[in-house]
């Protein structure tokens, strides 16, 4: 049996004498005894001990309900074909598209930087250095499925 340092009763909280601090003020470890008592109360809950977990026939939770067409044992080939179609779509269609977007956006960023560096100081150069580079970086990050939110319209550079 667990020997409790703190007991929660209807009359309040009973604390053993060796836990009552002689010092005044707050110490960081004081609440840990209450947290320990709360965890003990959760572990020794009398209600949850009355219930037992049901033994599952299968490991796959989709198979618990036999109305799922793709989870039945006789449709193993159907499930395998769906997995294969997903694999092909992911690596034959989506991956090359993302690579094309990524490489073109890196090239686009490089071109914009080179053009902006060669231009004399003007409003167009400022626009190209801020809005153009932001658009190029957005395109670059779209290949990674990034969600970008600008909270300020200025570009902030930090070290």
What report would you give on this structure?
The chain crosses the membrane at residues 76-93, 99-116. Keywords: Membrane, Transmembrane, Transmembrane helix. This protein has 159 residues and is mainly α. Among the domains are: 6-50, no CATH class; 77-142, no CATH class. The chain has helices spanning 30-43, 76-118, 123-142, and strands at 6-9, 12-15. Strands 1-2 form a two-stranded antiparallel ribbon. A hairpin with a 2-residue loop joins β1 and β2. The longest helix has 43 residues, at 76-118. It is flat, with a radius of gyration of 32 Å. The two termini are 58 Å apart. The mean pLDDT is 77.
Largest sheet: 2 strands, antiparallel
Which class do the helix and strand fractions yield?
Answer: mainly alpha
> Order of strands across the widest beta sheet?
1-2
- Rg, alpha carbons: 32 Å
Compute the separation of the termini in Å.
58 Å
Uncertain spans: none
**Can you count the helices?**
3
Question: Per DSSP, what share of the residues sits in E-state strands of 2 or more residues?
Answer: 5-15%
Keywords: Membrane, Transmembrane, Transmembrane helix
Transmembrane segments: 76-93, 99-116
List keywords for this structure.
single chain, 159 residues, mainly alpha, two-stranded antiparallel sheet
Short description:
The protein is mostly helical and 159 residues long. The protein has helices spanning 30-43, 76-118, 123-142; strands at 6-9, 12-15.
Write the layout of secondary structure elements.
Blueprint: E1 6-9, E2 12-15, H1 30-43, H2 76-118, H3 123-142
Antiparallel strand pairs: 1-2
